[in-house]
Every structure is written in structure tokens, then in C-alpha cells.
């Protein structure tokens, strides 16, 4: 199992610290640094900035939003970032959610499975530098009734194959990830509750005639180091309450549905009720401590090492850390502790 770092969204007031964390991850031998986007900072600009100031660590999008770009534009971006970084780019994609897709990008959130399949087909064809022709339900290239012609990407990526990851939560989306992607970007992943998701991944891999061998299972896991794991868990509450309670509408919140499938249906409903009523403190308090513990790395180095063993045994191949930091020194110390814990656990690769 390797370690990754998720910087989250740029522009949240901790940008200088994030860059220093990325440099520390590079120095510590982390496998990858990821950046996210929603409706603020864009991921490619951040990744170019990070790649320019690191040497060995991969940079990855977690995620580029499918409704934000045409597949050809995404292929252009991936090829450019791979070239600028010297072959260190990983392409993570996701459909986002209906609120952002329709409210911010003006793209209908319909048929996400079919749209994702076609999108990945086109991106891969463009990165292979095929003449771009596609006749699908959602995408047609070139348009059949105009002057457009099939074109070939003019940029040569450093690598023959840029790995494609999909962020997915629901069972059908996870199965599609196993079928068409090189890796899975997971959230609120718990080793004890991971069986159904990993079964869905295996089913998708089987459809493609493959197994999970060589497939990258990449959960993002909050990290907080301290003597009392319950005190550490309190620092994760704002993040968990935001996603379970407020990331989406009452009718469509993928993270709330995931928590329910993990056995926390009543608690997830309470978190959502309070969050949508703007009782943010109440929502944070309603997140169960054992849910936070199951989906995070909390406590001492030795306790974190024990949890890392559980993640590795569950099939995780890249454990991506999201430090719940108060300042830069704490963040760097947390990354170093995590590196020591991985050595202690004896599950590194």
C-alpha cells in the first residue's frame, strides 16, 4: 500500500500550507498528490503549480468534473499536464452532483453511467492520438451536419497510457469504475464496510475480463494525530457533516445514501435534517464517533498503524490522506507520523 495526499480545494485560505504539504509529501516518498474542484478553484491550474515545485510525486485530479469540460478538452488538459510534469499526471474524473452540474455548469444531470462511459471512451481515444470520431448517445464527433472534421491530438503525452480514475459512490457507478477505469477514488471508505463496494468493483472488472490485480483502490481518509482519538474525531466532524448533511439536496445526497448503506441511516438523516436547517453545530454533534473512526485515521502513531493494516487487508492500494490541520507544522507532523505508521504497520510497498 502506498500513501497519497489530498489537498482538497485551493483558495480556502490555506494555499501556502497546501503547497508546503505537497513538497513534504514529495520528500517523504508519497505516491501522488491530488487536488479537487467544485465551483471555486479549478484542479488543473493547481496541479500544474504543484508539479512545477515537486520532483517525484505524481499529481492527480480528484476530480475533474465531467460536466465542466468536453472530453476532448479533458484529453488536451491531461496530455499537457503529463508533458509538463514529466509523466506524473493521473486523470481522476467524476460526474459531480446535480446541484453543481445543473446549477453551475448548466448541464443536465441525466444518465450519468452512459455519459461517463462515452466520456472515458473519447478521452482515451484522443490520448491514443486516434482521429477523433465518435457516434454515441451523448457525444457525436465530428458533428454530422457541419464543417467539422476528425482531428488528432497534437500533444504527445510522456506516457503511452495516462491512468484514468473514477470517483463513484453508488453500487452501479462503482461497478462501472471497475469495468472501464484504472482506479477508484473512494470517499468515506471503511475497511469494515467495504465488502459491497469491492464486490461491485470485482463485478465490473469481470465484465472487462480482468481482476482487481493492478487496479488502484484509492480512498481519501481524514488524518488527525493525537493522544485521544475521540478528540481527534471532533476535528473531522465539520467535514463529515458537510458531506453527509449538506453536499446535495434532501432528495439527492450520495454521501448520505452511502452512510445509510453502512448502517447509519437514522444518524445520517438526523445530520441532514440539522444541516439543512442550518443547525451546523447540531449536525456536527450528530455524526457518530464510530462512523468517524471507521472512515478516518485518528489518534496515536500506533493506532494509525493498526488502522492502516485494516485498510491494506481490505484491498486499498493507495491510501490518500487528508490532514485535518490547524497549522502547517501540525500538517507536516501528521504526514511524517503517517509515514512512520506505514513502516510500523509493515504494509507499505
Mean pLDDT across all amino acids = 95
Instruction: Specify the helix fraction band.
Output: 40-55%
Give the H and E element order.
EHEHEEHEHHEEEHEHEHHHHHEHEH
Give me the Rg, rounded: 20 Å
CATH class identity of the largest domain: Alpha Beta
Distance between the termini: 5 Å
- Count of helical regions: 14
Sum up the overall morphology in one term: globular
CATH topology of the largest domain: TIM Barrel
| Total separate domains | 2
Instruction: Let me know the largest β-sheet.
Output: 8 strands, parallel, barrel
Describe the structure concisely.
By secondary structure, this protein is of the alpha/beta class.
Describe the structure.
With 349 residues, the protein is an alpha/beta fold. It has two domains: 2-226 and 298-345, Luciferase-like domain (TIM Barrel, Alpha-Beta Barrel); 237-295, no CATH class. Helix content is 48%, strand content 15%. The chain has 14 helices and twelve strands. The chain has helices at residues 15-28, 43-52, 71-84, 98-103, 112-127, 171-180, 195-207, 229-234, 237-246, 254-276, 280-286, 289-294, 301-314, 328-345, and strands at residues 2-6, 32-35, 58-61, 64-65, 89-94, 134-135, 140-141, 164-167, 183-187, 216-225, 297-299, 318-323. The strands form two sheets. The protein has an eight-stranded parallel β-barrel with strand order 1-2-3-5-8-9-10-12, surrounded by six helices. It has a two-stranded antiparallel ribbon with strand order 6-7. Helix 3 crosses helix 5, helix 9 (237-246) packs across helix 10 and helix 13 crosses helix 14 (328-345). The longest helix is centred in the last third of the chain and has 23 residues, at 254-276. The chain is globular, with a radius of gyration of 20 Å. The N and C termini lie close together (5 Å).
Amino acid at each position: 500500500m502506498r500513501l497519497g495526499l489530498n489537498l482538497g480545494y485551493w483558495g480556502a485560505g490555506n494555499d501556502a500550507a497546501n503547497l508546503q504539504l505537497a513538497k513534504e509529501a514529495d520528500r517523504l516518498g508519497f505516491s501522488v498528490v491530488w487536488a479537487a474542484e467544485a465551483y471555486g478553484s479549478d484542479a488543473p491550474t493547481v496541479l500544474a503549480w504543484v508539479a512545477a515545485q515537486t520532483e517525484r510525486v505524481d499529481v492527480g485530479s480528484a476530480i475533474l468534473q465531467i460536466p465542466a469540460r468536453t472530453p476532448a478538452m479533458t484529453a488536451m488538459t491531461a496530455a499537457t499536464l503529463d508533458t509538463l510534469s514529466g509523466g506524473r499526471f493521473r486523470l481522476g474524473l467524476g460526474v459531480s452532483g446535480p446541484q453543481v452540474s445543473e446549477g453551475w455548469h448548466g448541464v443536465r444531470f441525466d444518465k450519468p453511467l452512459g455519459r461517463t462511459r462515452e466520456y472515458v471512451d473519447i478521452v482515451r481515444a484522443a490520448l491514443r492520438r486516434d482521429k477523433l470520431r465518435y457516434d454515441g448517445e451523448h457525444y457525436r464527433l465530428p458533428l454530422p451536419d457541419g464543417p467539422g472534421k476528425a482531428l488528432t491530438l497534437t500533444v504527445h503525452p510522456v506516457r503511452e497510457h495516462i491512468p484514468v480514475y473514477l470517483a463513484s459512490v453508488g453500487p452501479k457507478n462503482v461497478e462501472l469504475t471497475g469495468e472501464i477505469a484504472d482506479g477508484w477514488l473512494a470517499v468515506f471508505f471503511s475497511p469494515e464496510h467495504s465488502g459491497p463496494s469491492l464486490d461491485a468493483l470485482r463485478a465490473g472488472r469481470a465484465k472487462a475480463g480482468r481482476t482487481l490485480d493492478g487496479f488502484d483502490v484509492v480512498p481519501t481518509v481524514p488524518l488527525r494525530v493525537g493522544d485521544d482519538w475521540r478528540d481527534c474525531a471532533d476535528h473531522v466532524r465539520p467535514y463529515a457533516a458537510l458531506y453527509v448533511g449538506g453536499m446535495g439536496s434532501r432528495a439527492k445526497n450520495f454521501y448520505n445514501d452511502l452512510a445509510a448503506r453502512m448502517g447509519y441511516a437514522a444518524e445520517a438523516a438526523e445530520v441532514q435534517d440539522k444541516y439543512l436547517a442550518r443547525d451546523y453545530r447540531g449536525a456536527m454533534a450528530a455524526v457518530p464517533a464510530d462512523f468517524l473512526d471507521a472512515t478516518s485515521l485518528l489518534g496515536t502513531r500506533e493506532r494509525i498503524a493498526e488502522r492502516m493494516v485494516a485498510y491494506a487487508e481490505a484491498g486499498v492500494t493507495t491510501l490518500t490522506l487528508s490532514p485535518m490541520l490547524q497549522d502547517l507544522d501540525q500538517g507536516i507532523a501528521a504526514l511524517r507520523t503517517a509515514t512512520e505508521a506505514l513502516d510500523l504497520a509493515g504494509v507499505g510497498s
